[in-house]
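Sanity check. The docking grid for coenzyme A depends on where the pocket ends up, so I'm generating a full predicted complex first rather than guessing from homology. Inputs follow.
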Amino acid sequence: MLRSKIIGTGSYVPKKIVTNQDLEKMVDTSDTWISTRTGIRERHIAVEDSSSEMASKAAKNALKAAGVSPKDIDLIVVGTVTPEMTFPSTACFVQSHLGVKAGAAAFDVSAACSGFLYALDIADKYIKTGAAGKALVIGVDQFSKLVDWNDRATCVLFGDGAGAVVLSAEKGSRGVLSCHIHSDGKHWEMLYSGNPCPPSPFEERKAANQYLVMNGNETFKIAVRTMGGAITEAMEQNKLTAEDISLLIPHQANLRIINATRDRLKLPDEKVYTNLDRYGNTSAGSIPLALDEAVRLGRVKENDIILFVSFGGGLTWASAAVRW
Ligand SMILES: CC(C)(COP(=O)(O)OP(=O)(O)OC[C@H]1O[C@@H](n2cnc3c(N)ncnc32)[C@H](O)[C@@H]1OP(=O)(O)O)[C@@H](O)C(=O)NCCC(=O)NCCS
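Predicted complex below; grid placement will be based on this.
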Protein backbone atom coordinates (compact mmCIF):
# COMPACT_ATOMS: atom_id res chain seq x y z
CA MET A 1 0.00 0.00 0.00
CA LEU A 2 1.25 3.49 -0.92
CA ARG A 3 1.58 6.04 1.87
CA SER A 4 2.37 9.75 1.88
CA LYS A 5 5.70 10.01 3.63
CA ILE A 6 6.78 13.46 4.79
CA ILE A 7 10.33 13.62 3.46
CA GLY A 8 11.08 17.30 4.11
CA THR A 9 9.74 20.27 6.06
CA GLY A 10 10.34 24.00 5.74
CA SER A 11 9.03 27.28 7.05
CA TYR A 12 9.37 31.01 6.65
CA VAL A 13 8.41 34.04 8.73
CA PRO A 14 8.92 37.67 7.77
CA LYS A 15 11.67 39.60 9.54
CA LYS A 16 9.63 42.32 11.28
CA ILE A 17 8.71 41.43 14.87
CA VAL A 18 5.87 43.19 16.71
CA THR A 19 6.04 42.58 20.48
CA ASN A 20 3.27 42.95 23.04
CA GLN A 21 5.09 46.07 24.21
CA ASP A 22 4.84 47.49 20.68
CA LEU A 23 1.08 46.81 20.76
CA GLU A 24 0.77 48.64 24.09
CA LYS A 25 1.70 51.77 22.14
CA MET A 26 -0.94 51.14 19.46
CA VAL A 27 -4.08 50.02 21.36
CA ASP A 28 -5.38 49.97 24.94
CA THR A 29 -3.78 46.66 25.96
CA SER A 30 -0.93 45.29 28.08
CA ASP A 31 1.73 42.63 27.80
CA THR A 32 0.22 41.02 30.92
CA TRP A 33 -3.28 40.81 29.41
CA ILE A 34 -2.06 39.36 26.10
CA SER A 35 0.40 36.86 27.55
CA THR A 36 -1.87 35.57 30.33
CA ARG A 37 -5.00 35.30 28.13
CA THR A 38 -3.30 33.90 25.03
CA GLY A 39 0.33 32.90 25.68
CA ILE A 40 1.49 35.19 22.84
CA ARG A 41 4.48 37.51 23.38
CA GLU A 42 5.40 38.55 19.84
CA ARG A 43 4.48 37.93 16.22
CA HIS A 44 6.10 38.39 12.78
CA ILE A 45 4.46 40.81 10.38
CA ALA A 46 4.98 40.83 6.62
CA VAL A 47 6.02 44.19 5.26
CA GLU A 48 7.78 43.20 2.06
CA ASP A 49 6.68 39.56 1.60
CA SER A 50 3.41 38.60 -0.06
CA SER A 51 1.59 35.31 0.62
CA SER A 52 3.05 33.55 -2.40
CA GLU A 53 6.54 34.75 -1.54
CA MET A 54 6.26 33.44 2.04
CA ALA A 55 4.80 30.17 0.74
CA SER A 56 7.58 29.81 -1.85
CA LYS A 57 10.34 30.46 0.69
CA ALA A 58 8.87 27.85 3.07
CA ALA A 59 8.48 25.39 0.19
CA LYS A 60 12.04 26.00 -1.00
CA ASN A 61 13.31 25.12 2.49
CA ALA A 62 11.16 21.96 2.52
CA LEU A 63 12.45 20.89 -0.93
CA LYS A 64 16.03 21.46 0.25
CA ALA A 65 15.44 19.36 3.38
CA ALA A 66 13.91 16.61 1.23
CA GLY A 67 16.64 16.76 -1.41
CA VAL A 68 13.93 17.01 -4.08
CA SER A 69 14.06 19.17 -7.21
CA PRO A 70 11.03 21.37 -8.02
CA LYS A 71 11.00 19.55 -11.36
CA ASP A 72 9.91 16.35 -9.55
CA ILE A 73 6.78 17.87 -7.97
CA ASP A 74 3.45 16.68 -9.45
CA LEU A 75 1.05 18.57 -7.19
CA ILE A 76 1.01 21.78 -5.13
CA VAL A 77 -1.81 22.37 -2.65
CA VAL A 78 -1.79 25.61 -0.67
CA GLY A 79 -4.06 26.20 2.33
CA THR A 80 -4.68 29.95 2.61
CA VAL A 81 -7.42 32.53 3.12
CA THR A 82 -5.10 35.42 2.30
CA PRO A 83 -4.20 34.48 -1.27
CA GLU A 84 -1.88 36.49 -3.46
CA MET A 85 -4.85 37.50 -5.65
CA THR A 86 -8.45 36.37 -6.07
CA PHE A 87 -7.10 34.31 -8.95
CA PRO A 88 -4.87 32.73 -10.11
CA SER A 89 -4.27 30.55 -7.08
CA THR A 90 -1.35 31.18 -4.74
CA ALA A 91 -0.27 27.63 -5.65
CA CYS A 92 0.18 28.73 -9.29
CA PHE A 93 2.40 31.60 -8.12
CA VAL A 94 4.44 29.13 -6.04
CA GLN A 95 4.78 26.90 -9.11
CA SER A 96 6.12 29.84 -11.06
CA HIS A 97 8.46 31.14 -8.28
CA LEU A 98 10.00 27.68 -7.71
CA GLY A 99 10.13 26.48 -11.29
CA VAL A 100 7.89 23.46 -10.71
CA LYS A 101 7.36 21.73 -14.04
CA ALA A 102 4.58 22.85 -16.38
CA GLY A 103 1.73 20.36 -16.26
CA ALA A 104 1.86 19.77 -12.50
CA ALA A 105 -1.45 20.47 -10.72
CA ALA A 106 -1.63 23.52 -8.44
CA PHE A 107 -4.58 24.86 -6.45
CA ASP A 108 -5.56 26.53 -3.16
CA VAL A 109 -7.84 25.34 -0.37
CA SER A 110 -9.86 27.78 1.76
CA ALA A 111 -10.35 26.42 5.28
CA ALA A 112 -8.86 29.26 7.38
CA CYS A 113 -6.72 27.93 10.24
CA SER A 114 -7.48 24.33 9.18
CA GLY A 115 -6.10 25.09 5.71
CA PHE A 116 -2.89 23.09 6.08
CA LEU A 117 -4.62 19.92 7.35
CA TYR A 118 -7.29 20.22 4.62
CA ALA A 119 -4.47 20.55 2.04
CA LEU A 120 -2.64 17.57 3.58
CA ASP A 121 -5.80 15.46 3.42
CA ILE A 122 -6.29 16.22 -0.28
CA ALA A 123 -2.65 15.67 -1.24
CA ASP A 124 -2.58 12.43 0.78
CA LYS A 125 -5.46 11.10 -1.30
CA TYR A 126 -3.70 11.98 -4.58
CA ILE A 127 -0.57 10.17 -3.36
CA LYS A 128 -2.38 7.08 -2.06
CA THR A 129 -4.29 6.63 -5.31
CA GLY A 130 -1.10 6.96 -7.37
CA ALA A 131 -2.28 10.22 -9.01
CA ALA A 132 0.80 12.07 -7.72
CA GLY A 133 4.26 10.80 -6.81
CA LYS A 134 5.52 13.87 -5.01
CA ALA A 135 3.49 16.75 -3.61
CA LEU A 136 4.15 20.09 -1.96
CA VAL A 137 1.67 20.90 0.80
CA ILE A 138 1.84 24.45 2.10
CA GLY A 139 0.01 26.50 4.72
CA VAL A 140 0.40 30.27 4.51
CA ASP A 141 -1.48 33.27 5.85
CA GLN A 142 -0.99 36.96 6.27
CA PHE A 143 -3.67 38.00 8.76
CA SER A 144 -1.89 41.33 9.32
CA LYS A 145 -3.74 42.54 6.23
CA LEU A 146 -7.14 41.34 7.54
CA VAL A 147 -7.14 42.65 11.11
CA ASP A 148 -8.15 46.13 12.21
CA TRP A 149 -5.02 47.41 13.94
CA ASN A 150 -7.27 49.61 16.12
CA ASP A 151 -9.22 46.62 17.48
CA ARG A 152 -7.43 45.27 20.56
CA ALA A 153 -9.69 42.21 20.72
CA THR A 154 -8.28 40.79 17.47
CA CYS A 155 -5.05 42.53 16.42
CA VAL A 156 -3.06 41.06 19.33
CA LEU A 157 -3.82 37.46 18.31
CA PHE A 158 -2.41 37.02 14.83
CA GLY A 159 0.90 36.92 12.97
CA ASP A 160 2.13 36.11 9.46
CA GLY A 161 4.02 33.01 8.35
CA ALA A 162 4.22 29.89 6.21
CA GLY A 163 5.16 26.24 6.51
CA ALA A 164 5.48 23.44 3.99
CA VAL A 165 6.05 19.71 3.66
CA VAL A 166 7.12 17.51 0.76
CA LEU A 167 5.12 14.29 0.47
CA SER A 168 6.47 11.27 -1.37
CA ALA A 169 4.58 8.11 -2.37
CA GLU A 170 6.34 5.28 -0.58
CA LYS A 171 5.58 1.73 0.51
CA GLY A 172 5.86 0.80 4.17
CA SER A 173 4.40 1.73 7.52
CA ARG A 174 5.78 5.26 7.80
CA GLY A 175 3.81 8.29 6.58
CA VAL A 176 0.32 9.74 6.93
CA LEU A 177 -1.88 7.25 8.81
CA SER A 178 -5.12 9.22 8.76
CA CYS A 179 -6.64 12.60 8.03
CA HIS A 180 -10.09 13.78 9.11
CA ILE A 181 -11.52 17.10 7.95
CA HIS A 182 -14.82 18.64 9.11
CA SER A 183 -16.85 21.83 8.93
CA ASP A 184 -20.08 23.34 10.22
CA GLY A 185 -21.07 26.32 8.09
CA LYS A 186 -23.89 27.41 10.40
CA HIS A 187 -21.21 28.90 12.68
CA TRP A 188 -19.65 31.03 9.89
CA GLU A 189 -20.36 34.26 11.78
CA MET A 190 -18.02 33.25 14.63
CA LEU A 191 -14.99 34.23 12.55
CA TYR A 192 -14.94 35.80 9.11
CA SER A 193 -13.40 38.48 6.96
CA GLY A 194 -14.28 40.23 3.74
CA ASN A 195 -17.21 41.54 1.80
CA PRO A 196 -20.00 39.57 0.25
CA CYS A 197 -19.47 39.17 -3.49
CA PRO A 198 -21.69 41.14 -5.92
CA PRO A 199 -24.63 41.68 -6.61
CA SER A 200 -24.45 44.22 -3.73
CA PRO A 201 -24.06 47.72 -5.19
CA PHE A 202 -20.47 48.98 -5.23
CA GLU A 203 -21.05 51.71 -2.63
CA GLU A 204 -22.56 49.18 -0.21
CA ARG A 205 -19.59 46.87 -0.62
CA LYS A 206 -17.18 49.73 -0.15
CA ALA A 207 -18.86 50.72 3.12
CA ALA A 208 -19.01 47.16 4.48
CA ASN A 209 -16.57 46.02 7.16
CA GLN A 210 -13.40 44.81 5.48
CA TYR A 211 -11.79 43.64 8.68
CA LEU A 212 -11.71 40.30 10.43
CA VAL A 213 -14.72 39.79 12.73
CA MET A 214 -14.56 37.31 15.61
CA ASN A 215 -16.72 36.15 18.50
CA GLY A 216 -13.76 35.24 20.72
CA ASN A 217 -15.59 33.61 23.62
CA GLU A 218 -17.78 31.34 21.49
CA THR A 219 -14.88 30.46 19.18
CA PHE A 220 -12.87 29.49 22.24
CA LYS A 221 -15.54 27.05 23.50
CA ILE A 222 -16.15 25.49 20.09
CA ALA A 223 -12.39 25.16 19.55
CA VAL A 224 -11.90 23.18 22.75
CA ARG A 225 -14.82 20.89 21.90
CA THR A 226 -13.98 20.27 18.23
CA MET A 227 -10.23 19.81 18.75
CA GLY A 228 -10.90 17.25 21.49
CA GLY A 229 -13.34 15.39 19.21
CA ALA A 230 -10.94 15.46 16.25
CA ILE A 231 -8.14 13.97 18.33
CA THR A 232 -10.39 11.22 19.68
CA GLU A 233 -11.41 10.39 16.11
CA ALA A 234 -7.76 10.11 14.98
CA MET A 235 -6.83 7.99 18.00
CA GLU A 236 -9.78 5.61 17.57
CA GLN A 237 -9.17 5.16 13.83
CA ASN A 238 -5.50 4.27 14.47
CA LYS A 239 -6.14 2.39 17.74
CA LEU A 240 -3.80 4.74 19.61
CA THR A 241 -3.61 5.43 23.33
CA ALA A 242 -2.17 8.64 24.81
CA GLU A 243 1.06 6.69 25.56
CA ASP A 244 1.51 5.95 21.83
CA ILE A 245 1.63 9.65 20.95
CA SER A 246 5.14 11.08 20.76
CA LEU A 247 4.13 14.64 19.97
CA LEU A 248 0.90 16.60 19.56
CA ILE A 249 1.23 19.62 17.26
CA PRO A 250 -1.95 21.65 17.67
CA HIS A 251 -3.03 24.79 15.84
CA GLN A 252 -1.33 27.64 17.70
CA ALA A 253 -4.22 30.01 18.48
CA ASN A 254 -4.31 30.29 22.26
CA LEU A 255 -2.26 28.53 24.94
CA ARG A 256 -5.38 28.05 27.10
CA ILE A 257 -7.10 26.18 24.26
CA ILE A 258 -3.98 24.04 23.75
CA ASN A 259 -3.73 23.31 27.49
CA ALA A 260 -7.41 22.30 27.66
CA THR A 261 -6.77 19.86 24.79
CA ARG A 262 -3.63 18.55 26.52
CA ASP A 263 -5.52 17.98 29.79
CA ARG A 264 -8.37 16.20 28.02
CA LEU A 265 -5.84 13.79 26.53
CA LYS A 266 -3.87 13.57 29.81
CA LEU A 267 -0.67 14.27 27.86
CA PRO A 268 2.41 15.58 29.67
CA ASP A 269 3.54 19.07 28.69
CA GLU A 270 6.66 17.82 26.89
CA LYS A 271 4.49 15.90 24.40
CA VAL A 272 2.72 19.07 23.22
CA TYR A 273 4.60 21.39 20.89
CA THR A 274 3.91 25.11 21.23
CA ASN A 275 5.60 28.12 19.66
CA LEU A 276 2.76 30.65 19.66
CA ASP A 277 4.65 32.79 22.18
CA ARG A 278 6.92 33.82 19.27
CA TYR A 279 4.54 33.74 16.29
CA GLY A 280 0.96 34.25 17.48
CA ASN A 281 -1.76 32.63 15.41
CA THR A 282 -0.44 32.32 11.84
CA SER A 283 -3.65 30.57 10.68
CA ALA A 284 -2.87 27.98 7.97
CA GLY A 285 0.86 28.58 8.53
CA SER A 286 0.73 27.58 12.17
CA ILE A 287 0.88 23.75 12.12
CA PRO A 288 3.56 23.33 9.40
CA LEU A 289 5.62 26.13 10.97
CA ALA A 290 5.51 24.35 14.34
CA LEU A 291 6.26 20.99 12.68
CA ASP A 292 9.30 22.38 10.89
CA GLU A 293 10.62 23.86 14.13
CA ALA A 294 10.06 20.60 16.00
CA VAL A 295 11.86 18.62 13.26
CA ARG A 296 14.81 21.00 13.20
CA LEU A 297 15.05 20.86 17.03
CA GLY A 298 15.24 17.06 16.89
CA ARG A 299 11.88 16.66 18.65
CA VAL A 300 10.63 14.25 15.94
CA LYS A 301 12.29 10.86 15.46
CA GLU A 302 11.84 7.95 13.07
CA ASN A 303 8.66 5.95 13.80
CA ASP A 304 7.32 8.56 16.25
CA ILE A 305 3.55 9.00 16.15
CA ILE A 306 2.74 12.68 15.59
CA LEU A 307 -0.80 14.03 15.92
CA PHE A 308 -1.93 17.30 14.36
CA VAL A 309 -5.19 19.07 15.22
CA SER A 310 -6.73 22.36 14.09
CA PHE A 311 -9.83 24.52 14.13
CA GLY A 312 -10.67 27.76 12.36
CA GLY A 313 -13.15 29.94 10.51
CA GLY A 314 -15.89 28.14 8.65
CA LEU A 315 -16.09 26.74 11.20
CA THR A 316 -13.62 24.06 10.22
CA TRP A 317 -11.67 21.52 12.23
CA ALA A 318 -9.33 18.68 11.31
CA SER A 319 -6.79 16.15 12.52
CA ALA A 320 -4.03 14.02 11.08
CA ALA A 321 -1.88 11.20 12.44
CA VAL A 322 1.56 10.48 11.02
CA ARG A 323 4.12 7.75 11.68
CA TRP A 324 7.37 9.67 11.14
C1 LIG B 1 -9.95 36.49 22.32
C2 LIG B 1 -9.68 35.88 23.70
C3 LIG B 1 -8.19 35.85 23.95
C4 LIG B 1 -10.36 36.76 24.74
O1 LIG B 1 -10.07 36.24 26.04
P1 LIG B 1 -11.21 36.20 27.14
O2 LIG B 1 -10.58 35.73 28.38
O3 LIG B 1 -12.33 35.40 26.56
O4 LIG B 1 -11.58 37.72 27.29
P2 LIG B 1 -12.98 38.43 27.00
O5 LIG B 1 -13.26 38.43 25.52
O6 LIG B 1 -14.01 37.83 27.89
O7 LIG B 1 -12.64 39.90 27.45
C5 LIG B 1 -12.37 40.21 28.79
C6 LIG B 1 -12.09 41.70 28.88
O8 LIG B 1 -10.83 41.99 28.25
C7 LIG B 1 -10.99 43.04 27.31
N1 LIG B 1 -10.03 42.86 26.24
C8 LIG B 1 -10.20 42.24 25.04
N2 LIG B 1 -9.06 42.30 24.34
C9 LIG B 1 -8.16 42.95 25.10
C10 LIG B 1 -6.80 43.29 24.93
N3 LIG B 1 -6.11 42.99 23.82
N4 LIG B 1 -6.19 43.95 25.93
C11 LIG B 1 -6.81 44.27 27.07
N5 LIG B 1 -8.11 43.97 27.29
C12 LIG B 1 -8.77 43.31 26.32
C13 LIG B 1 -12.42 42.94 26.86
O9 LIG B 1 -12.87 44.18 26.35
C14 LIG B 1 -13.12 42.57 28.15
O10 LIG B 1 -13.30 43.72 28.92
P3 LIG B 1 -14.64 43.93 29.79
O11 LIG B 1 -14.66 42.79 30.76
O12 LIG B 1 -14.42 45.26 30.40
O13 LIG B 1 -15.75 43.86 28.79
C15 LIG B 1 -10.26 34.45 23.79
O14 LIG B 1 -11.66 34.50 23.81
C16 LIG B 1 -9.83 33.60 22.64
O15 LIG B 1 -8.65 33.31 22.48
N6 LIG B 1 -10.78 33.09 21.83
C17 LIG B 1 -10.46 32.28 20.69
C18 LIG B 1 -10.01 33.16 19.59
C19 LIG B 1 -9.28 32.41 18.53
O16 LIG B 1 -8.51 31.54 18.81
N7 LIG B 1 -9.53 32.77 17.29
C20 LIG B 1 -8.87 32.20 16.18
C21 LIG B 1 -9.49 30.92 15.84
S1 LIG B 1 -8.52 30.06 14.69
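Relevant for the grid: The chain has eleven helices and 13 strands.
Also worth noting: Residues 177-323 form a domain with the Peroxisomal Thiolase; Chain A, domain 1 fold (CATH 3.40.47.10).
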